[in-house]
Amino acid sequence: MRRNLLAAMLLAACVLPAQADDALREAYTHPLPGLADSDRETFFRGRGLFRQSWVVAPAEDRAAGLGPLYNRLSCISCHQKNGRGRSPDGPDERMLSMLVRLSVPGKAADGGPKAHPAYGGQLNEEGIAGVPGEGRAALSWVETKPITLAGGEKVSFRRPQIRFVELAYGPMGKVLTSPRIGQPVYGLGLLEAVPDATLLTMAAENKADGVRGRVNRVWDAAAKQTVIGRFGFKSNQPNLRQQIAGAMVGDLGITSTLFPDENCTPAQKACQKAPSAGHPELSDADLDAMEFYLANIAPPSRRNADDPQVRAGERQFASLGCASCHRPELQTGPNQRFPLTANQRIAPYTDLLIHDMGQGLADGRPDFQATGREWRTPPLWGIGLVPLVNEHSQFLHDGRARNLQEAILWHGGEARTARQRYVATKPEARKALLAFLESL
Ligand code: HEC
Ligand code: HEC
Q: How far apart are the C-alpha atoms of 165 and 312, rounded to whole Å?
């Protein structure tokens, strides 16, 4: 499945390096190889919906329905070039590709987090004319104690601290928060096509070093039942379609048949009275197109996979125990809806399971069955291209890691042994491991 891309990249490598970089910057945007001509229109229509800016109702525009409360005007603003968002550098900078989930202790009727009574499940910083935005999450960084790696290299860390300012609907009171950057959105159809049975098998396997891993079980709003979760930082969404409709209403304020209600709480009277662009605002045909688009974006192909240092790093990755969560190989099952994702051997470097990652990474906010310490193993495919495509090198759920090494050193809980081995590894072997990650 990678051959076309690889050929394209070899070609690109023969021309000027600047052009090769230009091509690589688009590496998260290609359809899966083999997309039929008859499907291209749907793919590009979905892409258009993902990229366009939505406008306030009433308007003659098909892209009407923004708000009343929202975070950004378009999906792509938090998923630049289909890649990841970033966190602000300090409290005065707005969250441009990041959001803060909110809840109060307890569970909602569907088993999910219990929404804050005045602010809902997520802070919507923006409002349309006449509807005050909810306020702003000011993020500051706290430097933590440096540690020393084998060979003497010193590494320091930063952890985020959130303060709510300009709150429009009263004091926040006791609230659980989870700041999260936009996640990359390529390869998701392939991840959706990995059978539930594979996830359950991996969860049940006996793993070394105290690694466990389990599935999250979440509410499927269409099937009206609890199912295995696989999208979102805590596997808190059951499938792509619901993830997309959830983002539409939660991040943009656009309703769909899956989520027909605007995200106004009882305290938000102006929000409730604001005009709507229709019931629902997003047609099923448009939701279909967005789902088709996101299901059919290819993961990027690897670079320099045969480089000796990269190969040495790949062996390190296995021997340090990284691969017991970041699975180098999975097999997708049959899939009639999105045939290009069916029966593929993929290299996502994830098990899609949630793991206890320790107190250092904990957000303290349960999400369905995931605890405040549990996070889904993120896929690592394409991770080496983040600096080129997204022009930053922030990693982990809140972007606290400023490079790949910091991301590894934040690992705790079930990944404690792997982290300790990394700390104790010789500098040149650590360099090889990082070179391997950069090749993904
Ligand atoms: C304000 C920033 C923001 C906007 C706007 C936004 N997203 Fe996201 N997106 C996120 C964050 C944060 C996550 C992680 C969510 C979580 O963990 O619950 C995410 C996760 C996702 C995922 C899951 C990726 C994975 O690996 O599980 C998909 C798909 C997605 N968004 C699609 C969309 C679509 C479609 C839109 C437009 C309707 C959109 N996003 C708008 C921030 C944003
Ligand atoms: C117990 C399972 C587990 C093990 C073992 C593990 N990881 Fe992870 N890894 C995770 C989880 C879960 C996260 C996400 C944590 C977060 O965002 O707070 C993560 C995040 C990462 C990230 C950042 C990814 C991103 O998209 O931001 C990198 C890089 C990474 N791991 C590399 C490694 C390496 C290298 C090793 C071995 C030294 C390793 N991991 C071992 C579970 C694991």
A: 49
Does residue 58 have a cis peptide bond before it, meaning omega lies within 30 degrees of 0?
A: yes
SS3 category, 303? coil
359 burial via Cβ count (<10 Å: 0-12, 13-18, 19+): exposed
79 contacts: CB under 8 Å, gap ≥ 6: 50, 85, 97, 182, 183, 184, 185
Residue 381, judged by CB atoms within 10 A of its CB (0-12, 13-18, 19+), counts as buried
Mutate to test the pocket of ligand 2, among 408, 422, 430 (most ligand atoms within 8 A of CB): 408
Measure CA of the first residue to CA of the last residue in the chain; give whole Å.
15
SS3 132: coil
β 217-220/330-331 pair status: unpaired
- 215: closest CA among 190, 196, 187, 191? 196
Q: How far is the CA of 349 from the centre of ligand 2 (A)?
A: 10
What residues are in contact with ligand 2 under a 6 Å CB criterion? Answer: 211, 320-322, 324-326, 355, 357, 361, 375, 377-378, 380, 383, 395-397, 404, 407-408, 411, 414-415, 418, 422, 437
Q: Cα of 255 to ligand 2 centre, how many Å?
A: 34
Q: Could you tell me the distance, in angstroms and rounded to a whole number, from the CA of residue 41 to the centre of ligand 1?
A: 23
Per-10-residue mean pLDDT of the chain, 440 residues long, equals: 53 61 95 97 98 91 92 98 98 97 97 98 97 98 96 97 97 97 98 98 96 98 98 98 98 98 96 93 97 98 97 98 98 97 98 98 98 98 98 98 98 98 98 98
**Gap between the Cα atoms of 323 and 348, Å rounded:** 11
